[in-house]
Structure formats: structure tokens, C-alpha cells
Protein 1
Amino acid sequence: MKRVTAAGTLSLAALTVFAGPLAQADSLTAWYLGGGGGQARSSIDDVRITNGLLAGGFTSVSITDYDRPTGYKLFGGYQINKYIAVEGGYFDLGQSGFVATTVPVGTLSGTIKVKGLNLDLVGTLPITDKFSAFARVGVNRAEAEDTFTGTGRVRALNSNPSKTDTNYKYGVGLRYAMTDALGVRVEAERYRIDDAVGNKGDIDLVSVGLDYRFGRKVQAPLPSVTRPEPVAAAAPTVAPAPVAAAPAPQPAAAAMPPPPPPRKVTFSADALFDFDKATLKPAGKQALDKFATDLRGTTFDVITVTGHTDRIGSREYNQKLSTRRADAVKNYLVDPSGIPVAKIVSRGADKSSPVTKPGDCKGGNATKALIACLQPDRRVEVEVTATKR
């Protein structure tokens, strides 16, 4: 039973619906798992079957094909970066078959089951922050199991041949990210297969599936850019407490002076952390050491640490990043600087309170100019409330 090339590739016309500039969105860089199912499509070589039966002495042959079985696949992969992944899995292309009716009276029935393993290299092209197109190319190791049954005057010489061989495969698809981790994909794949009676052909699988990604979100890779060195905000010296006016000679007690206003110190996030990281750099630790030194001999009610990001990237991711950075500063001030943990709180404000104005920085893509313009927005603010010497 021969498999020949059959039309079944997925039309890429749908891509025009989402045409536009490439999104500079974030992507998940991690392991993922998924599965899908759909219709497998093959062509059965009716001409070869008919000629074989006629050569065997039959005068008439009619054939009914069953060449649209249900197939499925399970897969796992690793997203190396925003554009490249390696994926492997198991596939089952279902069971196709035919029934040939002959004169003199008899029938020849044949089926083929195809299943195996594959390993692919997958390339992804982002279209929007939710949609992406992808293409794959790889190899498959497939087992083809044939079964032939004859009735009446028809006899099958080899009723259960089978063969396992390695061939190529390729495919295209679209993916929609329902959440940061969960996505739905539609794809069409072509598997080159050797059947068990010496023929080569193609079986197509058009499927719908889901994938789930495990890992943390990282900002999409940018072209090599030499970033300007940000200057860490110098920790200001503690302002002297105001001196209370001399009491009047009357015996009444002098009024207590009001507490001084809160003191706020702003540190450049680029000076404290590497890009897209929440681990303090040596220079950042030195700046925080100086700040802690200036607080010695000062009493205070509370220290509030607030992390801020720029507007590049999603709100959800920026919220997580700003919170992790605020926590890193808090933890360092507690240990080794020795500030009591009960007197310091931290929070992330994502990109909700920018320093730059809406019209200051133009553009929506993460260009070198935009990153430099938005530098003031990436910061960590430390506010000390009710200080006094």
C-alpha cells in the first residue's frame, strides 16, 4: 500500500490579518509540554492495487478508500530564545485503509498504522504580543504496520508486514498566547513515511493543540547596544533637625516641634542592577552601604522601598520585576547593613509612576534611543519617615 504526496498544508493567508511591525514583547525561555490532535491525510495508490489484481486474473476491480483517519501527537521542547526552540515528541497518524472488490467474487482489504518519534528545530516569528507564526523541520522515526486480508478468490501473500525507518518531516503553524504560559496552536505537518511493502510517501497531519511553558519571563533579546553608564544617585546627607525656639519665660511648657518631613533617596535601577535582573551589583551595594552609614545615629519610624520600571514590556512582568528589585534592596539594608526588618517595607510599582512625561520619549519599540530616554523611570526610591538625630 503506497502513500503519495497529498495536499494538506495549512494556508498562510491568515498571516495577513496580523501583519504589522514585530512586537518587542517578552517571551518565555524555558521547558514546555503540549499535545494536539486532528485529521491525518494520505493517498492510497489505487492504480497499483488495481493493476496487481488484474494481473492476478481478476476481470474487474472497484476500490473504496479510508484515508482520513484521526491522528494525535504529544511533545516537549526547550525555548532557547525568543526565536528558536528544540522540540521532540511522539506521534500517531492513525489507521488508513482500502477495500477492493473483485470479479470473480472476492475482496482484498488493507490497512496501515503509522506511529513513531520525532525531533524538530522550530523557528518562531512574533507577529503581535499574542500571535506568532512558526515553522519546523526535523526527522521522524516511524513504524508502519500493514495488514492485508483476502476473501473469496483473493489471497494475501504476506498478511502482516511491518517496517521502521527514519525520514524527514516539516510543518508550519500559528500560536496564540492565552496567558504568559498557556498557548493554543494550529499547525500542519508533513511526515515522509516508508510503508511495509517497499513504497515511500507522505502523510499530512492538520492539528489543534495546547502547550504549557514552565519558567520565568525574560525580556526579548535586543540588538547589541552600548548603554550609557547611569550615574547612581548620591545618598544625601541627613538634614539637621530644626532647632526649637527658646521657650517664653512663662511657666507653660514649650510646644514640641513637628516631625521633619519624610526624606526620599532615589537610586538609578541601572546602577543597582544589571538589565532585567534583580541581583545587586557591587556598585549598587556600595551605594546602599553609604546610605546605611548616613542613617547611623538617626531614629526613624519606617523605611519604604519602592521599585519602578519603564514602560517597555507588559504590566504583569514589570510588576514582578519591580517587586523583586525592591525586595533585594530591602534585604540588603537588613543584612548586612543591620537595619531592623520590622522598620522596613518594600513594594513594586511597575510602570505606574514614570518620571518622564508622555511626550518626552517617542516610539513603541525598544530602540537604543527609547531605552536611554526612559532611564529616569527605572529607579528604586527609599523613603525614610520621621527622622531625627
Note: Confidence is low (pLDDT under 50) at residues 1-28.
Protein 2
Amino acid sequence: MAAPGLLFDEHVNVTACRQLQAEGADVVHALEVGLGSTPDPDILRWAIEHDRIVVTRNYQDFAPLVQSLAGRGMPFPGALFLSTSIRQNDVGAHVRAVRGWIEAYSAGDRSVTGSFAWLF
């Protein structure tokens, strides 16, 4: 099962995004698609319109948005929150966390449709 597309929020490491792209992952960065400095609700709206799961370090702002959508029964691809234990500049940790989720998803273990999950 192929993993769905991902959208890295602008606060997620760009180099990690590029490395995952080089490995064949279907991931785009907010800065690559013209979403730099875009408000979080608009980031999530773009992700929904393009059927992409948001990958973010910003639990504080995105969690209420995700909970609101889920509470209203609105379908959305989901969100993946990078743990604060992963430093912003640790490209390898970003790549391992996302790659691990993609592998688990492909094995049928990690759907986040209409919800969220943590990446460690």
C-alpha cells in the first residue's frame, strides 16, 4: 500500500524533505508550493484540497484545527506531529521519523485519515 502524499509545514526541516524526495517519497514542503508564512488554517485547507497529510512541529496550533475537523466529522487526510525531542536541525531524525511512519503505513499499521499521530 503506497503512503499518501505529505506536506511539510514550513517549520519542518527543508533538507529532510529533499532527502525524502530523493528516496522517492511523495512529500512537498510548504515553501516549495508557495505556502511560506501562510496561516495554519490555510495550510491545512491546502493539504485537504491536495489530499496530503500535514507534517508539522507545531502541535499547539494544529492540534485544535485537527480536533475541530474531527469533531465536526469533516474528512481530511490527517496530521503527523514531530515530537519536540527531534531537534529542528536534526535532518537524520526527521528523515527516520517520517520514513518509519511511511514504512508502517505501507504495512497497514498507521492510517491517520481524519486524525493525527506522533512521530518520534
Note: The beta strands are 5-8, 27-29, 52-56, 79-82, 116-119.
Protein 3
Amino acid sequence: VSTKGADEIIDEIEKAVPNHAFVIVDLEGTANSIVTNTLAVADYVIVPMQGSPLDARHGLRAIKLARTAEKVSRRRIPTSVVMTNTGAAVKTRDFRAITNELAAAGVSVFDTTIVSRAAYRALFAYKMPLDALDRKAIPGIDAAQKNALDFATEVRDWMRAEQKKGLTYVAA
């Protein structure tokens, strides 16, 4: 569902919550009223971040916004970072430095990273899910599907662990 304004997005979330186990909201990375309002009703926040110093600064802004939303809503909103656009095998020095800084600051980082793959880029180019892409024309679809499943499994496990802590969240 696409929305245009800050008021609309909250209405869409409220409509979706009773009918779905999960409501995932993909937001742009800028600080605006849509992001602020959505964070205030979020149960969990996942901040995508690339392993570069510039992207880390933008990611840290998003984490600070989530922490501000916690204060405004007067409830804990678990926040974690997923590193994106990573290499399949080698982690750069910048990547290691950023993840170490995040850990030192008490920011949770998913073990699974979203690896840079042609199949992920094709999602946007062709506006199709991974399983609908042409396997002969686009390399790495199976690896991208496994990577996506690994990440989704880790997110599910993370959310279950948060729920076991006795924390219940309701979008208000």
C-alpha cells in the first residue's frame, strides 16, 4: 500500500494490524513527519545500513529517531541494524569498524547481512518478486532467496525473543 502523507500511513497501519500477523512499513531514510509518526507506533524497528562511514551516519540518525520515538511513546521500541549491500565473502575494514562501533554503543546488529546481488537489483528493475524473475537471464536468484530467507528467519527469531521478554506492543 502506498501512502502520501503522515496521517494516511498511520490509518493504513491501524487498518492492517487486526488482519495481519505482521505489518511491515518501508520508509525513506529521512527525518520527516511520516518517519516520526510511524516510529512512534512501531513494535520493532529495523534500520538498514551499508558498511560505509557516510551511510553509518544516516543510519545513526534513524536509530536516534527511534530512541526519540521511545521517549515520546513512553515505551521501549526494540531497534536493530541490518547491514546491506555487503560482499558475499569478505567484510571490509569499514564494515568491521562500523559494526564494532554499533556493538560498543549497545546497538543490536543482525548476524545475517543482505548481500549485494544482481537478483536484488532486478527486483526493482522489473518490479517482480525473486521467484518470478527469469533464472536464465538473472544470476544468483537461488543465493538471493536463501539470503532473504536467512534474514527473515533471524528477524522472526529476534521478534520472538523480544516477545518472550514479556513485552507486548500495540499500535495505538
Note: The beta strands are 45-50, 79-86, 108-109, 114-115.
